[in-house]
Design goal:
7 strands, mainly beta, 28% strand, 196 residues, two-stranded antiparallel sheet, five-stranded antiparallel beta sheet
């Protein structure tokens, strides 16, 4: 059908689309408008009278079967938007990307956290626990401080290079031993007693 205005569908249940065809169902939101600053949108609105900090605003969830004798439907991933701070004039939001981690429990892997105390700041948390690995396939540009807490900083390429540009500096902490390995298996050791 063709509609030139809004379409409202109110239900206390769900809205299901099913298909046995490969690659279907497919939902397409198509806009032929050429306004550069606007586009089609999927909008989640939590319009309750008692919305509060920490309130879930909307979720996109991904489910599938496991390989149990009688397959169980498991939630494998989720994207969720949350109110971080609803204070008028200081509104901040969080966006969480979760995946099932080993035992089917949804675990935060990427968190975008709107700062509740300052404008123009977004904190990002990556991984879940000290055993998590974050892989960067390319360069890492850091415009602020780079801090390693409770672990090592390793250069493991065959020809690793650590460059200090302009007025930057490396601060060595007294009481800590620093080891620089070369490609041939040799090493330069800065004993803890010489640093400070």
């Amino acid at each position: 059908f063709d509609a030139h205005g809004d379409i409202s569908f109110v239900t206390n249940g769900g809205f299901n689309i099913a298909s046995s065809t490969s690659g279907k169902p497919l939902i397409q939101i198509k806009s032929t408008n050429t306004t550069r600053a606007d586009a089609g949108e999927i909008k989640f609105l939590k319009d309750a009278a008692d919305v509060q900090d920490g309130e879930q605003l909307g979720k996109v969830s991904f489910y599938g079967d496991n390989d149990a004798g009688t397959p169980e439907v498991i939630q494998y991933a989720q994207i969720s938007g949350i109110v971080s701070d609803m204070t008028d004039g200081q509104e901040a939001g969080d966006l969480y990307f979760k995946v099932a981690a080993y035992d089917g429990v949804l675990t935060n892997g990427l968190q975008l956290l709107g700062d509740t105390n300052a404008d123009g700041e977004v904190d990002v948390a990556i991984g879940a626990g000290a055993a998590s690995t974050t892989t960067i396939a390319g360069d890492l540009d850091v415009t602020g401080d780079l801090t390693a807490i409770g672990g090592d900083v390793l250069l493991t390429d065959l020809t690793p290079t650590l460059s200090i540009i302009t007025d930057c500096a490396i601060t060595l902490v007294a009481g800590t031993e620093y080891i620089v390995n070369d490609a041939d298996g040799g090493a330069m050791v800065l004993p803890a007693a010489t640093v400070g």
